[in-house]
Structure formats: structure tokens, C-alpha cells
Amino acid sequence: MKHRLIILILACGLPGMLFAESVRLGIIGTEEMTKGSEAATESSLLQATRFHGLYWEVIVNHVGFGMTTTARFTEVPTTDPALAPSLFLFDWLGGFDVRYHFTDRSVFDPFLEGQIGCAGRVDATDYAEKGFEDPGSSRMKYLSLYGQVGAGIAFRFHQFHIGVKMDYRFDNDSIVGTDIAAYPLSKFSSGVFGGLSF
Length: 198
Description:
elongated; eight-stranded antiparallel β-barrel; 13% helix; mainly beta; Porin
């Protein structure tokens, strides 16, 4: 499965790079804006509101496409003496991006974007070390598919760029055919990113 995923990523990215006017890659940090949202209570309890990760994008005629993947590893205290002192959770968000850039190689780069992705949370606790049987499929706590749109602006400095953006999630649903609850994403998220441009 891992090899198939790598092949899929390469198949999506390499053809575009052959015709790209610009290629970007870098690091990104995002913040789930949970205040006033249905996800606020649970997200704040489990502290999974900030994510960090990587992104890449190829741009042809002002249109860019690529992928963004962010994750967070969280240690959560537990009151169960058998599992003390804590459990470990791994959260991720990842998806395919499409952007429209209003300028071409200008210092200021405002853009619109859309993303379709997957979000999830898995229990990464080492139960064997604590003397318990591995819970198997019940390790998966949340899993959902989401769609979002947003806007942002980047600033280019030679081969480098930095920027900010904000996104609105118009959809976030559990995956059909599973009984795993949808990941409690908020409606809005913000992000700061930076990296290299070629």
C-alpha cells in the first residue's frame, strides 16, 4: 500500500513538473480556528488545533496544483492507572490542492485555492509495552473526507517565498461504508507557509 501511494504521488506530480513555469515546495503551519465551532470542545481537550507539515506545487499559466500534508503527535494524560501516565494520538490532514495565482513572478502573489483531502486520528499508544493486547482496527478514532476553499498572499524574494492564507471548509463527512466518526474539523483554518521557488 505504501509503494502504491508513493507511485500515485509521483504520477500526479512529475508530468506537471515537465511543463511547469514554476515549482514550489516548503513547510507550512496551520491553526484550526475552533472558537465558536462545534469542534471546539473536543479539539481543545485533545489539543490538536495546530498542525505542521510539507507542501509542493507546480504552476502552469497561473494555475497551480499540488499536495499539502500536515500532522500532529499529541500526548494526552489519562486517569486510567493501567495506561498511565498518558496515551499518544497521531492526527493528520492531507489533500490535493488547486490554486489560481493572479500575478506571474511578481513580488506580491495573491491567490485563490481549493482542496479536497482526508483527515484522521489514530491511537498511536504502544499497548504491548503497557501489557495490553493491541486494539487493532479500534485504533482509528476519526476519519473523514473534506473540501475547502480559501485565499492567501505570498511574497517572493528571489528563490524564496513566504505567505499567509485562510480557508473555509464547506464539507466534512465520514467515509461511506465505515462506522468511523468524522474528524471534528472546524469551519475555518489559517496557515503560514514558506519555502523555495524554482
